[in-house]
Write a structure and sequence with these properties.
The structure holds three protein chains of three kinds.
Chain A lengths: L3 H16 L5 H28 L7 E11 L2 E9 L1 H24 L5 H23 L3 H19 L6 H32 L4 H9 L9 H16 L8 H4 L5 H10 L4 H8 L1 H5 L2 H24 L3 H21 L3 H28 L12 H4 L1 H15 L5 H15 L3 H26 L9 H11 L8 H5 L9 H16 L14 H6 L10 H7 L9 H10 L3 H32 L1 H10 L1 H8 L4 H26 L12 H12 L5 H21 L1
Antiparallel strand pairs in A: 1-2
Chain B lengths: L3 H21 L3 H26 L3 H31 L13
Chain C lengths: L1 H6 L1 H19 L8 H19 L4 E3 L3 E3 L1 H28 L3 H20 L3 H19 L6 H32 L4 H10 L6 H17 L8 H8 L2 H26 L4 H24 L4 H22 L2 H28 L15 H4 L1 H15 L5 H15 L3 H26 L14 H19 L2 H12 L3
Antiparallel strand pairs in C: 1-2
The chains are: A mainly alpha, B mainly alpha, C mainly alpha.
Chain lengths: 689, 100, 478
């Protein structure tokens, strides 16, 4: 049953990959959507069955066959549905389905076989993502982990005739490989220490150990995994690939680079919650990196002019929040935010896609404005998304973000709380800046209209679905066609209501999602309360329940509620203040923005250029290697061996390779001499020792 | 008195001469001959050690090695003819179309 | 006497089929074409059957050959390599106008050498097996006499090969001087009793033997022949020697160093550690900048020699089994990849540059998919054969405390994905349509590719059986 969930998208991939070129667009697109829909259906049924079980026993294991088994090493190909995986499954299949539907319209201008190629990648991605989510041990998860990376790479570079797209694909790939390496080593180390790779078995083994307060093997393993997570989930220092990944088609950005794949790192930590809570040192690192990323990306988002880049930095920033939650031990809150974020961020990406689509590929917000009337559906849905992410009460983002900030404060990380709250302010500001620049004010797109069409063809093949002829004449803008509008509306509804599964106790709710997820974060033996009791040190509260138990123990429930309410009011005030600032600066007095930028030009430049991080990497890592290898390289270039064909290679490797390969001069006498030198070295090594 | 060590040193010297010949000489035929010298240096070791140990094994091994050397020479010379046809030269440095 | 012949039965069968192939070509009427490939296939299948029948009996023959499970396992690998090569060959032979009798007979003789190498328990016999194998492969490399590159590659390979055999033989001679015998078990016995620090001459002898093996497996710095020979040889021969020769050489390497010289593990392991690290790094790094697919795969095979060395250095039972499993996984993936390159070539166009793969997804989606699978397997993507092999070897290394070796291995295999993916990118994501019309593909080649594909998935998804087999085959070895 569980195996069917990834199986359907996989079948969709096989069909589209093998015979997709011979199918019409309607067939191949419909097939891909159908695969996702069926998969969603199966996921719902499985989830329903999971809910039918008593809370402690909510685990459905399904072993397909023994994958690798030798001696004490066992890695069965097992899928496991527990509350955490169930929630993720619904998000991936549900939102994935909506984005597939949206794509059928968005990608309509592609040729038939390109269209099939697109949907085959998309389906393959969904299959791997579901394997990642459902895998019951690290090795199965790793299949998905590598697979989604591959698909992401293929999809970022989907428009491969665009140089920036292939470059972005490469960058994403290089950065992700760095993370993956740490992940593999961590996996080997985990096996060496626990003798198993099964998540529950590891959790059980770790639960028996005391938390590791000094640096040790648990901290090393968790840190290695976290490095893997920073690559996949775009955290400092490996976040640089995500903004560039926006070169891919917009639905891809929505699905992979906002709603699902990038959250894999957060999910992985949630999966290993028990392991992480026994490594408080790593937890601190996770929390600090999380909040630093959130803040940094928030500031960068403030000055970007490309609509998708603003959203990309916003994604990085929100992922930072999730890691913050993980780092302070509020696993449920982090996953809760992951889940609500998937709705509103997918919504906003799809909304931006509708805008770009209507403007024939224009992504620069300075050339938009006043689109409110022309694109009402897009505007209103987008506005809901923005309100949700800003944390306006009543919408989903409010509940989840607030939960994270509260837990951060409650766990004693007041500095992190301040930074997190500052980020919340930034979030509200840049989101509404985006809204005002795009949808309000004077239309600025007419002047650039002809140019935009030109750019459309050369720069971005972002499709528009119906009635190309309508656009030719009077510049009449069309709102999203049905296939795009319906997902937008559904996601908007989701962005509003999704939060109501997690209404906090302080507001009279029961925080059902936290109670529901709780079993996934505790060791299988159900010793959670006891463990939570022993974890007195801040930041290691095992779970939401644990935190409450602690609070109860101190007899401070009232104070707790009061505190939570205070913090809540603070963050609402912050959100409204942010919206207010944005209104003031970009709606009421647009000149203020320019004046501000002119007043502190260095600040503006710094933000616009993303804190010069790319340049920093370039100057400290890329350039030195490049320069030192120029000597070796020119000769290579001269003989035409190194030409444009050398794709997918980092300068790092390429530079050193250029020198090394020159030793391979082609002269057999040189080879013999090298052989002889090698022999002498080998013998000398023996004799000297 | 000639001891085993003398034989071993002589064969080591011969082996070294052969080795150096392979990467210092600039004629393909000489390279082949250098390899032959190396093999025969080893043969000398075998014979000397066999004699020293008082067993015929060493000498029998030499017969095998000589057979192998003959086979190698046959293949080697055939290959030399093959590349000579293309390059019209016997300089090993002329054949560097495969590199890097 | 009967046991003696039983022990060499697989080898005998292949030898016989090689002779039959040779004779059949000599006596075939002018116009007729004897089914030469058929003899080879029959011989190899017979040898495989014989190997399976011998499984578990641990027969020894003539005191110098041992048909233990270890050598039988290696037999199965090299037989598979030989079979696949023969299946891919007819089309290529036709196109390149290679004399079929010589080609098949030499391939079979090379297989004989490989099997003998895995089974030999005497250093002299090992040397002879090495030469049987090498001489056959030298000739195969240069079999397209009309082609300059082929001749150059064969000459380089030959000269350096002969050079390295001389070193190996010198190692044998010195061992003989110390021990008074060339039998592996006597060497082991002699070294085991001398409990004091190993004497210098022993170390020199061991070093020379290691150098000889390192050459055959193309470990750095003894690898320099490999890229040139691999690039110049006919593509199928490249695939054959990249897999078969490496498997046989590794088998002998394992047997000699983990039986005779096992007591000296502490002396040779650090040296091979350095060699392995250098091999992994250089093979990967230089592979990245190659523009020729065959040359790139050659560097990739250098890198894979490094991963295989990790299993040898670890020296535990699991490490040995991991090496054997990896050899099998590597053999099918590499052979498959080379076969795709080989069947795509036409008379005018070798189809071996990376750009030649541009747009293959459009013209030959099936072949593009196969190539993708083989390359991803080589790059260690789960759940394909290469991933399981790597995982198994690296976890054996970490288990035995060789953490840094595993880290270098993981790092380089992460980098190596770049060059495998370059071809994938060319096939799927390239605007250029550099493609010259691709030839029709014979049914036997399709069968061979299918077999290789099935093997890659089988070893990737259901590796348990093969791992168990590898584990049992190393149990009684030493």
């Amino acid at each position: 049953m569980l195996a069917l969930i990834p199986l359907f998208p996989f079948i969709g991939f096989i069909i589209n990959a093998l015979i997709g070129r011979r199918l019409s667009k309607a067939t191949s697109g419909g097939l891909a959507c159908l695969a996702m829909l069926v998969s969603f259906g199966v996921a719902v049924v499985a989830f329903w069955r999971l809910l039918g079980l008593p809370a402690e026993a909510r685990v459905i294991d399904e072993t397909l066959f023994t994958w690798i088994a030798s001696g004490r090493f066992q890695a069965p190909l097992t899928f496991r549905l527990d509350p955490l995986a169930g929630l993720m499954c619904l998000v991936v299949t549900g939102i994935g389905f909506l984005i597939h539907v949206y794509s059928t319209a968005y990608m309509h201008e592609e040729t038939d076989h390109e269209y099939a190629r697109y949907f085959s990648y998309l389906n393959l991605f969904a299959a791997f993502m579901l394997v990642l989510v459902l895998g019951a041990n690290l090795l199965v998860m790793f299949i998905g982990w590598e697979g989604v990376g591959l698909c992401s790479y293929l999809l970022i570079g989907y428009w491969f005739d665009k140089q920036s797209a292939t470059d972005a694909g490469k960058k994403a790939f290089v950065v992700n490989r760095v993370g993956d390496m740490a992940f593999i080593v961590g996996m080997c180390l985990a096996f060496a220490s626990f003798g198993t790779l099964d998540f529950r078995a590891i959790a059980a083994a770790v639960a028996a150990l005391p938390p590791e307060v000094t640096w040790g093997v648990l901290s090393t393993i968790t840190l290695l995994f976290f490095i893997g997570a920073t690559g996949k989930s775009a955290q400092i220092p490996l976040y640089i690939w995500l903004p560039d990944a926006m070169e891919g088609p917009t639905p891809v950005s929505a699905l992979i680079h906002a709603a699902t794949m990038v959250t894999a790192g957060v999910y992985m930590i949630g999966r290993n919650a028990v392991l992480y809570s026994h490594a408080p040192l790593t937890m601190e690192v996770v929390a600090v990196i999380g909040v630093a990323t959130a803040l940094l990306a928030g500031t960068i988002g403030l000055a970007q002019n490309d609509i998708k880049r603003v959203l990309a930095y916003s994604t990085v920033s929100q992922l930072g929040y999730m890691f913050l939650a993980m780092g302070v031990g509020a696993f449920a809150a982090g996953i809760f935010h992951l889940y609500t974020h998937a709705f509103f961020k997918a919504l906003m990406f799809l909304g931006s896609g509708a805008v770009i689509h209507a403007l024939h590929g224009e992504q620069d917000m300075r050339k938009m404005g006043g689109l409110r009337r022309a694109l009402p559906i897009t505007y209103w849905t987008f506005l809901i998304g923005a309100l949700a992410i800003a944390g306006v009460p009543g919408l989903s983002g409010f509940f989840s973000k607030d939960e994270i900030l509260f837990r951060t404060f409650a766990s004693g990380h007041s500095v992190l709380w301040v930074l997190g709250t500052a980020t919340a302010l930034l979030t509200a500001v840049y989101m509404f800046r985006l809204i005002y620049l795009t949808f309000h004010g004077k239309p600025r797109y007419e002047g650039a209209y002809e140019g935009a069409q030109e750019a459309h063809r050369a720069h971005d093949r972002a499709a528009h679905a119906q009635g190309t002829h309508n656009h030719g004449g009077g510049g009449v803008l069309h709102d999203a066609p049905m296939a795009m509008a319906i997902p937008l509306v559904l996601l908007a509804i989701g962005s509003v209501v999704a939060g109501y599964v997690g209404v906090p106790h302080a507001l009279g709710g029961s925080n059902r999602i936290e109670t529901f997820l709780e079993p996934s974060f505790s060791p299988p033996a159900h010793t959670a309360p006891a463990v939570a009791g022993t974890h007195a040190e801040p930041g290691v509260a095992l779970s939401g329940e644990g935190a409450h138990a602690e609070a109860d123990a101190h007899g401070a429930t009232h104070a707790d509620t009061a505190l939570e309410l205070t913090l809540m009011v603070t963050s609402v005030a912050i959100a409204l203040m942010g919206i207010g600032i944005a209104t003031l600066v970009w709606l009421k007095r647009p000149h203020v923005a320019a004046a501000l930028a002119a007043r502190v030009p260095w600040m503006h430049r710094l933000l616009l250029n993303k804190w010069y991080v790319d340049e920093l990497y370039d100057a400290t890592i890329v350039q030195p290697i490049k320069n030192s290898s120029t000597v070796g390289l020119w000769k290579g270039v001269d003989v035409g061996v190194i030409d444009g064909a050398v794709n997918g290679t980092g300068w790092l490797v390429r530079g050193s390779a250029a020198g090394l390969r020159l030793a391979q001069s082609g002269s057999v006498r040189i080879y013999a001499a090298a052989f002889f030198v090698g022999t002498v070295l080998v013998i000398a090594f023996y004799l000297v020792r | 008195m000639v001891t085993l060590d003398h034989y071993l040193i002589l064969s080591a010297l011969l082996f070294a001469i052969g080795t150096v010949g392979v990467f210092l000489r600039r004629n393909i035929i000489t390279l082949l001959l250098s390899v032959e010298i190396m093999l025969n240096a080893v043969n000398l070791t075998f014979v000397a050690v066999g004699r020293y140990l008082g067993s015929v094994d060493g000498q029998i091994i030499v017969f095998f090695v000589m057979t192998v050397a003959a086979a190698e020479a046959a293949v080697g010379l055939a290959l030399v003819i093959a590349i000579f046809r293309h390059g019209e030269t016997l300089s090993p440095d002329a054949f560097t179309s495969l590199k890097w | 006497m009967l046991t003696d012949f039983q022990a060499i039965m697989p080898i005998l069968i292949v030898t016989l089929s090689a002779i039959v192939t040779m004779v059949a070509e000599a006596f075939q009427p002018k116009q007729e074409r004897a089914p030469l490939a058929g003899f080879g296939v029959i011989g190899l299948i017979g040898a495989a059957a014989a190997s399976v029948l011998l499984w578990g009996y641990d027969k020894t023959g003539f005191g110098v050959v041992r048909a233990d499970n270890f050598s039988l396992f290696v037999n199965l690998i090299v037989i598979a390599v030989g079979l696949l090569t023969i299946l891919f060959s007819p089309q290529v032979i036709e196109r390149e106008r290679i004399p079929p009798g010589e080609y098949y007979a030499l391939t079979l003789f090379a297989v004989v050498g490989m099997m003998l190498m895995a089974a030999a328990t005497d250093l002299l016999l090992l040397f002879l097996a090495l030469e049987v194998l090498s001489l056959a492969v030298y000739v195969l490399t240069g079999i397209r006499r009309a082609q300059f590159q082929s001749a150059e590659a064969a000459f380089k390979y030959f000269l350096l090969g002969a050079f390295s055999s001389a070193f190996f033989l010198y190692g044998v001679a010195l061992t003989y001087a110390i021990v008074g015998s060339t039998r592996l078990e006597e060497i082991a016995a002699t070294l085991a009793v001398s409990d004091q620090a190993p004497d210098g001459l022993v170390l020199v002898a061991m070093g020379l033997l290691a150098v000889g093996f390192a050459f055959k497996i193309s470990a750095v710095p003894f690898h320099m022949w490999a890229p040139d020979a691999y690039q110049g040889a006919p593509t199928l021969v490249t695939g054959f020697m990249a897999t078969g020769v490496k498997a046989a050489a590794f088998a002998a390497f394992l047997r000699v160093f983990l039986s005779s010289f096992h007591t000296l593990h502490d002396s040779w392991a650090p040296m091979l550690w350095l060699v392995a690290v250098a091999t992994m790094i250089l093979g990967t790094v230089v592979g990245v900048v190659q523009a020729n697919a065959k040359r790139m795969l050659a560097y990739s095979s250098v890198a894979h020699a490094g991963y295989l060395l990790v299993g040898l250095i670890v020296g535990t039972r699991v490490g040995e089994a991991a090496t054997l499993f990896y050899l099998a996984a590597y053999a099918v993936s590499t052979l498959g990849a080379f076969a795709v390159v080989a069947v795509l070539a036409t008379e005018e166009h070798p189809h071996d540059r990376v750009q030649d793969f541009a747009g293959l997804w459009e013209s030959r989606p099936g072949l593009a998919a196969l190539m993708t699978v083989f390359l991803l397997s080589l790059g260690g993507f789960p759940p394909l054969a290469g991933f399981v092999g790597k995982w198994y070897i690296f976890s054996a290394a970490i288990d035995a405390g060789y953490v840094w070796l595993a880290i270098v291995g993981v790092l380089t295999s992460v980098i190596s994905v770049f060059f495998y993916l370059r071809i994938v990118v060319m096939m799927y994501m390239s605007d250029e349509r550099a493609l010259v019309p691709t030839p029709a593909i014979t049914r036997s080649a399709v069968a061979g590719l299918t077999l290789a594909l099935v093997a890659v998935f089988y070893l990737g998804l259901l590796p348990t059986h093969a791992i168990e087999l590898a584990l049992t085959s190393v149990q009684g070895m030493f």
